[in-house]
Amino acid sequence: MCEPVSCVAQSKASRHSRTLLGEAAHQYPSVVLSRSADRLPLVRRAMRCYSVRMRQVGELQSEQDARTFHDALVSRGIENTAEQEDGGAISIWVHDDDQLAEAARLFALFRASPDAPEFREAGAKAAAVRAHLVKSERRRRSTVVDEARVGYERHFAGVGLTTMLLVVITIAITIYAGFFRGGGGNHEAFARLHISQIPFHAGGSSAFLPEVREGEVWRLITPIFLHGDFIHILFNMMWLVQFGRFIESRFGGAKLLALVMAIGVGSNLAEYLWKSPYFGGMSGVNYGLFGFLWMKGKFGRDQNWQMHPQTVQLMLMWMVLCYTGMLGPIANAAHTVGLLIGALLGISSARLVPWIERGSR
């Protein structure tokens, strides 16, 4: 909340307006005075929205003196803000009460001898501190798994050969089999690639996966490569590229392939048991890869990345929307079980299986 100006005595707070001070200052108040080498961008009294308690050290009349003393504090790790008062004087405010005594001692030394070597050399030291803080903030921002982060991993940490191979296989099989929603597909191909040709009914006379039990084990995975129409395969391949390349660059192509196989078989079996054998699509795998990254980043003790919150919200909202029936027939069981398998693998690899972090990159 914004505190009335009349209530402020010896305790104030940082305004840190993103517009006035810039992104770096918003995260690191000690960088506030670093935007110009010849001009001190002071925080004006007119902008007062308080969030961080501060204590006044003293006032200086010269802007150059204020910059020099500010740099001296920054070089010693003391976060501070300069504010121009109505009378023209510049107040120096320290953010941490525990550092107030040291700041006051330095202020007394500065008033007595502003040209002392420790103050003359403060500018270069403060510049190094600011550069380190800005670099740390950029590194922190880069650890969020979003499109920009995935793009970095794609271009600098690996070419995603396994991911591209999965995309090529999916497109090739879909073209060979045709799009099953149009009714004009290759029915013979569908008969060979669906998980089964016979629906399973618990307690009924139909057998469980009769073709697989006779040796056609490829049926357990091949439904993930079948797609109903162009939009179906387009969106599934987009998500596969995003999640797959990140996982491949971090953990290696072999482990990406293992994840796809485990999630694919599990989600296919779930859809077969829940509804029917006549389904297809990579979306169950995509939800599993999403769940793996979400939980891996959330629970990994030594992870320096995490799934972007907007991506989490989008994927979960889309899953709920699919359950409403507004989008037509959807393999909801494959989505849900795929997500659960991926999440469990992510949690277990983060907490119980450290070898997954030692893969090739």
Unreliable segments of 5+ consecutive residues: 1-39, 43-51
CATH homologous superfamily classification of the largest domain: Rhomboid-like
Radius of gyration, Cα only, in angstroms?
30 Å
Number of strands: 7
Structural description of this entry:
With 361 residues, the chain is of the alpha/beta class. It has two domains: 5-141, Alpha-Beta Plaits (2-Layer Sandwich); 144-358, Rhomboid-like (Rhomboid-like fold, Up-down Bundle), CATH 1.20.1540. 53% of the residues lie in helices and 7% in strands. The strands form two sheets. The protein has a five-stranded mixed β-sheet with strand order 1-3-5-4-2. Strand 4 (80-84) and strand 5 form a beta hairpin. It is rod-shaped.
Concise summary:
With 361 residues, this protein is α/β, with parallel strands linked by helices. The chain contains 15 helices and seven strands. The strands form two sheets. Strands 1-3-5-4-2 form a five-stranded mixed β-sheet. The protein has a two-stranded parallel sheet with strand order 6-7.
